Structure formats: structure tokens, C-alpha cells
Description:
The longest helix is centred in the last third of the chain and has 33 residues, at 74-106. Helix 1 (14-30) packs parallel to helix 2 (74-106). By secondary structure, this protein is an alpha+beta fold. The chain has two helices and four strands. The protein has a single domain, classed as Double Stranded RNA Binding Domain.
Amino acid sequence: MKTTIQSIGFTASEELTEFIKEKTAKLGLHFENILSSEVCLSTDKSSTNENKVCDIRLLIPGNDLMAKAQCKTFEEATVHACDALTRQIEKHKTKIQNKRGLADITE
């Protein structure tokens, strides 16, 4: 799976990009039809410490899956966004299986 990482307003470190690629690659273990992923990192202009934003978009056949998380560090935000995407993938797989099951009954 190809992962595109875009950091807005700063340059992401090599360690951060490797961490993100590793986490997004693990999403492929849950669903094999992922075409690619797009990760956008930015900082929010808030007064709190939790101003690191990670926005992940998974390109899959049909509708794309998206998750956004805001935490103290980019690593933490990436983990939260990946967890949300894992739940979305499981829900998407259940929908697909239910549709296939209904198709088998009607045939």
C-alpha cells in the first residue's frame, strides 16, 4: 500500500514518517482492498497543548474512509486516527458481508 504524507507548516522528521508508514501499513492487515493512504499533518492554532492534528484518508473501492485526531503529539494523533479507521474498516467489512449474504439468499 502506498502512503502519502503531507506536513503543513513544518517538515516531518524521518522517524515520524516511518512511524506513520508503519501504522498505516498495519491497516492493510484488516482489509486487503486498500489502494493507498493519504496522511495530512498540521498544527492547530489553539492555546492548548493538544494542537497536533493527524488526518488520514484511506482510498478503497467505493467510498473512502477518513479519520481525524487531535492530540499532544503527532504519534498519539496517528494512533488514535488509525484506531478509528480500524473500527470503520470492520464496520465496512460487515456491510460487505451482509450484502453478499443477501445476494446469496435472493439467487
